Amino acid sequence: MNIRALWATFKFAVFTVLLILCALLLHGLSREIDIRTAVVYTAPTVVIDAGHGGEDGGAVGINGCIEKELNLDIALILRDLLTASGVNVKMTRSEDIMLYDAATPGKKKIQDLKKRVEIGEENEDSFTVSIHMNTYPSSKYSGAQVYYSPNHPDSKALAETVQGNIKAYLQPDNTRQIKEATSAIYLLHNIKNPAILIECGFISNQSEAELLCRDDYRHKVALTIYSAVIDHLNKEV
Ligand SMILES: [Zn+2]
Asked: Which of 10, 28, 119, 132 has the greatest count of CB atoms below 10 A from its CB?
């Protein structure tokens, strides 16, 4: 091999090595961008609020059931379903307690409600799902119904999705419409982040109260809410 041919081979080898180095550098950069994107992205937090608790039992059903217990049970099932799906979940309570500090002056109930609002606003990108049971002096009314906060436009969309899935998966005959909350619902009236309150059924109605006392039915209620939350999260992405 003469000098000229040797020089040409050397140049080709250097060019090839440089090309490989460039390719590796670009690959590394793209990986870095992916990682940065993953770090910047934060998934929404779903705040689950089991209504009442502790000294505040909520409503008492026609069959003697206590609202706070049914609320907590559904909230815990919902928490487990969402957590298993990789959704960030925060609970206002996960045991039988009222949210107040005995050393702080002021009525327990107001402290409790303010604390729930506070938890619902802790994460910038969060929405609250509050679980309750309905009651009415006349026992003839039944059916789940969703209320939404007037303070954020996403609340209404979430309420519509939940009410729609209640009709689709839980109560095909339910004709109830979603309702904007008034000042009568402290949490929804005051919270700034998106929030809804689900009245899962009337415990003043004999047959609905009996259903809500059954484990399998409460699982079905939780699954219905879960499906709506997942639908809502998928719409947001
Ligand atoms: Zn309630």
From this structure: 132
Looking at the structure, tell me whether residues 170 and 224 fall in a common domain.
yes
Print the domain residue range for 100: 43-236
CA distance 62 to 140: 11
Tell me the CA–centroid distance for residue 199 and ligand 1, in Å.
8
What beta strand segments (E) does 1-141 contain? 45-50, 88-91, 126-134
Q: How many CB atoms within 10 Å of residue 216? A: 7
What tens digit of pLDDT does each residue of 158-177 get? 999 999 999 999 999 999 99
Q: pLDDT digits over 177-189, tens only?
A: 999 999 999 999 9
Residue 33 and residue 51 in one domain: no
Strand-pair partners of 179: 147
Distance CA 182, CA 185 (A): 6
CA 78 – ligand 1 centroid, Å: 17
Same domain? For 35 and 126 the reply is no
Q: What is the pTM of this model?
A: 0.82
CA 135 to centroid of ligand 1, rounded, Å: 9
**Three-class SS state of 95:** coil
197 Cα–ligand 1 center, Å: 9
State whether 24 and 134 are in the same domain: no
Instruction: Please tell me the total count of domains within the chain.
Output: 2
Q: To the nearest 10°, report the CA torsion of 134, 175, 180, 187.
A: 30
Phi and psi, residue 11, nearest 5°: -60, -40
